[in-house]
């Protein structure tokens, strides 16, 4: 497990540098939350991000450690094998480089990389060959997510062009994935995992359908507007709950419960209301708050150190929150690959860079 040890050592050193660096000012969690909720809104336009000519290095092939005891049985072959850890990620032209780095990071830090099954949600079928050539040995399945599935449900927003249908694909995991898949980890494309993902996988959800880190100090009122809080049809939605903000970029989802309670329909109903009434300003996130806030299984904050993207407009760099880190999330409008390319990276972008498999073609 030399590679694993090396990576751990690298990250311990890197984190020590970061944590000790006086130049990195801590930013308030509220600022991070604001920044991450901007993420749904201020996606970079396609022109911000160059080529459609993809070139990626092949990811090194990693094998399971002895202790994995992954059973390849004839009866449970393929995706239904109960030993798999299931991970779902979207692939689109805009964030492809991020998705590939995310997958790479998961494999690098897993002691049982062959036991992970990736579910890729795409709206462009041409991306399948990119992912298959970059990760030739990966257990994976590609799902085509038709944009028309949500197009009619997406409310026109201030920045309409930035409302990517694929942002909403996470709402449909329960019906897209095979019925034998009962649990999935959903991850955004602007993350890297620096710990063994099996630890996140094994998190208990208790009676909850979704597990995610919660942020109870955030002013929850701000996520909805007057059309929600002053309308008696809606303003008792959270009655009897203690709703807290959570970020939908990292979620452990019990698909069995999701299917049983029909949450896809519930979310679609809120989207229909939003389309007409405009009860919130953001994209795909508030519907999750409406359905799940206060009913969440809280997961350690180490699994979503979010807000690292900062604000592209101000070009601000963000620091991490206090505490241990297992997953870094560049939510916010700045993305590490764009900043590295522009030679104006933020200090923490150096933690993303080792997972980048993109080959520059100039
Ligand atoms: C939360 O925000 C609302 C409006 O934005 C404000 O009226 C309320 O006082 C705030 N609550 C807290 C606890 O800060
Ligand atoms: C809900 O909205 C109605 C109508 O504006 C208002 O009278 C009522 O006080 C609101 N309820 C809550 C809990 O805010
Ligand atoms: C893509 O990049 C490669 C490597 O630089 C180049 O040889 C090729 O012509 C490019 N293809 C397109 C379609 O631009």
UniProtKB/TrEMBL annotation:
GO terms for molecular function: glycosyltransferase activity. Coiled coil: none annotated. It is found in: Endomembrane system. Gene3D superfamilies: Spore Coat Polysaccharide Biosynthesis Protein SpsA, Chain A. It is an enzyme of class 2 (transferase). InterPro entries: Glyco_trans_8 (IPR002495), Glycosyltrans_8_dom-fam (IPR050748), Nucleotide-diphossugar_trans (IPR029044). It comes from the Eukaryota. Its main location: membrane. Keywords: Cell wall biogenesis/degradation, Glycoprotein, Glycosyltransferase, Membrane, Signal, Signal-anchor, Transferase, Transmembrane, Transmembrane helix. Pathway: Glycan metabolism; pectin biosynthesis. Its EC number is 2.4.1.-. It holds the Pfam family Glyco_transf_8. PANTHER family: GALACTURONOSYLTRANSFERASE-LIKE 5-RELATED (PTHR13778:SF71), GLYCOSYLTRANSFERASE 8 DOMAIN-CONTAINING PROTEIN (PTHR13778). This is Hexosyltransferase.
């Amino acid at each position: 497990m030399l590679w694993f040890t090396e990576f751990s050592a690298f990250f311990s050193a890197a984190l020590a540098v970061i944590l000790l660096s006086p130049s990195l000012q801590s930013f308030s969690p509220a600022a991070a939350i604001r920044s991450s909720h901007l993420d749904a809104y201020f996606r970079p336009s396609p022109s911000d991000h160059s080529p459609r000519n993809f070139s990626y290095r092949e990811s090194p092939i990693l094998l399971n450690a002895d202790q994995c005891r992954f059973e390849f049985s004839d009866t449970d072959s393929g995706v239904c094998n109960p030993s798999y850890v299931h991970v779902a990620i979207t692939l689109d032209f805009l964030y492809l480089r991020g998705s590939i780095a995310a997958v790479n990071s998961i494999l690098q830090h897993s002691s049982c990389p062959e036991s992970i099954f990736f579910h890729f949600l795409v709206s462009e079928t041409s991306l399948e060959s990119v992912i298959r050539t970059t990760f030739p040995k990966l257990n994976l399945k590609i799902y085509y997510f038709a944009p028309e599935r949500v197009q009619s449900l997406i409310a026109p927003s201030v920045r309409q062009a930035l409302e990517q249908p694929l942002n909403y694909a996470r709402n449909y995991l329960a019906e897209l994935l095979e019925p034998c898949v009962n649990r999935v980890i959903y991850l955004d494309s602007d993350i890297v995992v620096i710990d063994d993902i099996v630890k996140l996988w094994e998190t208990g959800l208790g009676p909850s359908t979704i597990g995610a880190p919660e942020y109870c100090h955030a002013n929850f009122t701000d996520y909805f507007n007057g059309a929600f809080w002053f309308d008696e049809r809606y303003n008792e939605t959270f009655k009897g709950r203690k709703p807290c903000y959570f970020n939908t970029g990292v979620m452990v989802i019990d698909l069995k419960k999701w299917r049983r309670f029909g949450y896809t329909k519930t979310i679609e109903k809120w989207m229909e209301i939003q389309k007409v009434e405009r009860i919130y300003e953001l994209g795909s996130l508030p519907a999750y708050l409406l359905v799940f806030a206060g009913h969440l299984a809280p997961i350690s904050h180490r699994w979503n150190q979010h807000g690292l993207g900062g604000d592209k407009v101000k070009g601000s760099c963000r620091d991490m929150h206090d505490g241990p880190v297992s997953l870094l999330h560049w939510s916010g409008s700045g993305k590490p690959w764009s900043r590295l390319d522009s030679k104006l990276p933020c200090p923490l972008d150096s933690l993303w860079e080792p997972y980048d498999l993109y080959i520059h073609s100039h």
